[in-house]
Design goal:
heterodimer; A: about 525 residues; mainly alpha; Amino acid/polyamine transporter I; about 75% helix; B: about 55 residues; 1 helix
Chain lengths: ~525, ~55
């Protein structure tokens, strides 16, 4: 009875209105810019059709297991990353939660800028404003890129859409989980799917589409013997699923206690990958058209991924295409929608963490984190030095910050605190798709080994070779400095007191004695 | 398209989109458990202000 009373006394929480709302929001978070601009090029460069094999292996052995881990932590301990991890493992893990919040904060600063670019290009599509030389237009006319450093020379063409993105984002976050996040995803996700489907069908009927699809899907079996191809697959799955930096912990915490976790998780994971396959078809059919127009092979084209693909190669293609303006609008509209629904989830991590720690209302938390973030974002990324800063911060935040967070989470939760069985018990108590000991082995074994290798090799490479030929002091401040700031922020925020003191939170369902660790059973 | 590229295009679609369809069918047939443990009362509050420490 005492236990029941404690559960009843546990704090009320915002909630998704149901399973479908949660699934749509989680898919909206997972499907982002990387699905459209990263997956197709990565698949092409890493074995083409043969990439399907490492990709599927990575999805099943790392992507879905970490997704379930995030769900289990957020749902069982019912809080944002810092609160849930503190309930799971005390102050050490709370610090990890704040590190995740800090990384999410940093990512939100530049992610908004990319969405602002996409929004601008959506408008530019209608009159093909980039002209005959999209590369020069993007860096020169649009971004007005200057030398590396910190300039406060603002670029109005970026500043205005960036401010707009921030205002809309904060309005959605302030409206709450059900009326803000869920409602936006319920509208934007189907819209994204329809717009992108129209784009893909149009692309398939372009002259040369078959050339592009041949390039993407013809298997290169030799690639499977290259460890870097497998790392690329794990990396793609990992960055694509919005896992291991607090997003899915936070989203799962808004599910009712009696909620299915793993079966919806499978839908989310496969929906994310399905969108990647769709993007691969659309992007490479379009690239095939461009290659034929240029009289070159697809392999000779430049800018097959990321910013180059989206803001240089695609505009060039759109200019040559019959019905180009509509195609461009569909592409950049899709980028904007996909990015926006992911951005919401990144910022919710920050807002929820602060809301819970400092006892703020939802609106207070949104404004107190969102306004400083918007100001910083504008100062750093709407100026003539924005592109370089973005590239460097993104590289460190993702490859060091997010990957480091994943390695630490899995090692601390499974090996140090030995909470694998408790989280497995939780998943199986509420879900219809059961997970076995294999899940713990994957989360505690495969994930830290593969991601640990990725982390160490990236740190060594950045330390030895630098990045992009940029000056070392610049990388020290914008690259390593970003990680250092996140660590300091994590330590300071952990040290601050919780606004409303301690509660008698009890996880539900209670862990049977047989599943507890010997120390928790009172065994000697 | 070459036959090998068509095969891998179809294989990708069948495996990944097939995985999506299978997981959706699984969820539709088993949307929630019939035997939740006791407790787990609803703690929803649309205007929930704060959470406290552990």
């Amino acid at each position: 009875m005492a236990e029941r009373a404690a559960i009843d006394a546990s704090p009320p929480r915002e909630q998704w209105t149901g399973q479908v709302g949660f699934i749509l929001a989680a898919i909206g978070s997972a499907v982002g810019l990387g699905n459209i601009w990263r997956f197709p090029g990565v698949a092409y460069e890493n074995g083409g059709g043969a990439f399907l094999i490492p990709y599927l292996v990575a999805l099943l052995t790392a992507g879905i297991p970490i997704l379930f881990l995030d769900y289990a932590i957020g749902h069982r301990f019912r809080g944002s990353a810092p609160a849930a991890l503190r309930r799971l493992g005390g102050r050490r893990l709370e610090a990890l939660g704040w590190f995740q919040v800090a990384i999410a904060f940093v990512i939100s600063l530049y992610y908004t800028a990319v969405i602002a670019w996409a929004l601008s290009y959506f408008v530019f599509s209608f009159d093909l404003r980039w002209g005959d030389d999209p590369g020069t237009f993007f860096q020169g006319d649009y971004l007005q890129v200057g030398a590396p450093g910190l300039s406060f020379e603002f670029v109005p063409g970026v500043l205005v859409p960036l401010a707009l993105v921030w205002i809309v984002t904060l309005a959605v976050l302030a409206a709450g989980v059900a009326k803000g996040l869920q409602r936006t995803n319920v509208i934007f996700l189907p819209l994204l799917l329809v717009a992108f489907l129209v784009l893909v069908v149009r692309a398939l009927f372009l002259e040369g589409a078959d050339v592009g699809l041949n390039a993407l899907f013809t298997p290169n079996w030799a690639a499977l013997g290259d460890p870097n191809v497998w790392i690329a697959a794990y990396s793609q799955i990992f960055f694509s699923l919005s896992i291991a930096f607090g997003i899915m912990v936070t989203y799962a915490s808004y599910r009712a206690r009696r909620s299915n976790l793993t079966a919806p998780g499978l839908v989310v994971a496969f929906a994310n990958s399905s969108f990647e396959i769709l993007a691969g078809i659309g992007v490479f059919a379009t690239l095939g058209f461009f290659a034929v127009q240029q009289g070159v092979g697809v392999g000779e084209l430049e800018g097959l991924t990321g910013v180059g693909l989206s803001f240089v190669t695609f505009p060039a293609i759109v200019s040559q295409m019959p019905g180009g303006p509509l195609f461009g609008a569909l592409f950049f509209g899709s980028l904007t929608l996909a990015g926006f629904t992911s951005l919401l989830s990144v910022l919710q991590v920050v807002s929820a963490g602060v809301q819970e720690k400092f006892g703020l209302s939802r609106v207070q938390a949104t404004l107190r984190t969102g306004i400083p973030a918007a100001v910083l974002s504008v100062l750093l990324f709407s100026t003539t030095t924005g592109l370089l800063a973005l590239d460097v911060v993104d590289n460190w935040a993702n490859n060091i910050g997010v990957v480091g967070s994943a390695v630490l989470t899995t090692v601390l939760v499974v090996w140090v605190l030995r909470k694998g069985r408790e989280l497995q018990f939780h998943l199986n108590s509420v879900s219809t798709f059961r997970v076995g000991r294999t899940w713990i082995a994957l989360v505690g074994g495969v994930v830290p080994v593969v991601l640990g290798y990725m982390l160490v090799s990236r740190i060594v490479e950045l330390a030895v070779n630098g990045y992009g030929g940029l000056p070392a002091p610049y990388l020290a401040s914008f690259g390593w400095g970003t990680i250092a700031l996140a660590v300091v922020a994590a330590l300071v925020l952990t040290a601050l007191p919780w606004r409303n003191g301690r509660s008698d939170f009890v996880a539900w369902p209670p862990l049977p004695v047989a599943n507890r660790q010997p120390s928790e059973r009172g065994d000697r | 398209m070459t036959p090998i590229a068509i095969v891998f295009l179809l294989l990708s679609i069948v495996v990944i989109w097939g995985g999506l369809v299978a997981s959706m069918l699984f969820l539709a047939r088993r949307p929630s458990r019939a035997d939740y443990p006791a407790g787990g009362v609803d703690d929803a509050d649309p205007d929930a202000p704060v959470i406290r420490d552990t």
